[in-house]
Specification:
The chain has about 120 residues and is an all-alpha fold. It has one domain. Helices cover about 35% and strands about 0% of the residues. The protein is built from four helices and no strands. Helix 1 runs parallel beside helix 4 and helix 2 crosses helix 4. The longest helix is centred in the last third of the chain and has 13 residues. The chain is globular.
């Protein structure tokens, strides 16, 4: 059995290809815009504003790893359906990691006890 081919370095290309179908799928869903901006900023290389192209893009090696784990190859491009699904998940789970102290009303979570005061 042969070893898998090594992943080529990706630092010579811009990661995070934004295809027209992906962009269109997000643009027609204003409810996902905040989730999309949040996801983009979470993936961005720290200090992205200090380096050209001055865009919040992910690290090329990290992006290649994510595409490999999702699609099986580092040069894959996410489908519009997958991006919308991911952003829906981000939006739906945005408050799950917060405690009652993070919320102004002191409520915990979004389950049947949501709205009850912490304490």
């Amino acid at each position: 059995m042969s070893d898998p081919a090594p992943v080529p370095p990706t630092s010579d290309r811009v990661p995070f290809p934004v295809t027209v179908p992906v962009l269109a799928a997000v643009l027609v869903r204003p409810g996902l815009w905040a989730a999309a901006v949040g996801a983009l900023l979470r993936m961005a290389v720290p200090g992205w504003w200090r380096h050209r192209p001055f865009l919040p893009l992910p690290d090329p090696d990290w992006w290649a790893f994510r595409m490999t784990t999702a699609y099986g190859r580092p040069d894959a491009e996410p489908t519009a359906e997958d991006v919308v699904s991911y952003l829906d998940w981000c939006r739906a789970t945005a408050s799950l990691g917060r405690t009652g102290r993070d919320r102004p009303d002191g409520a915990i979570g979004r389950g049947p006890l949501a709205g009850r005061q912490a304490g």
